[in-house]
């Protein structure tokens, strides 16, 4: 019973960490994609 609870706690911590990593990755992708989109639009206008 105690092992099961400890395993569940570890699983919950792991899932929470992965969720934070996923949110950070999505935020970083957004921050990179936005300026690239602006540069692409500007290049198309100048072309």
What features would you highlight for this structure?
0% strand, mainly alpha, 47 residues
Tell me the layout of helices and strands.
Elements: H1 2-46
How does this structure look, described?
The chain is mostly helical and 47 residues long. Helices cover 96% and strands 0% of the residues. It contains 1 helix and no strands. The protein has one helix at residues 2-46. It starts with a helix and ends with a helix.
Contiguous low-pLDDT stretches (5 residues minimum) are: none
Radius of gyration: 20 Å
Largest sheet: none
Give the overall pLDDT as a whole number.
Answer: 93
Gross geometry: rod-shaped
Compressed to H and E, one letter per element, the order equals: H
**Total beta strand runs:** 0
Q: Report helical residue fraction.
A: over 70%
Per DSSP, the total helix count is: 1
Distance between the termini: 68 Å
Structural class: mainly alpha
What percent of residues are in strands?
Answer: under 5%
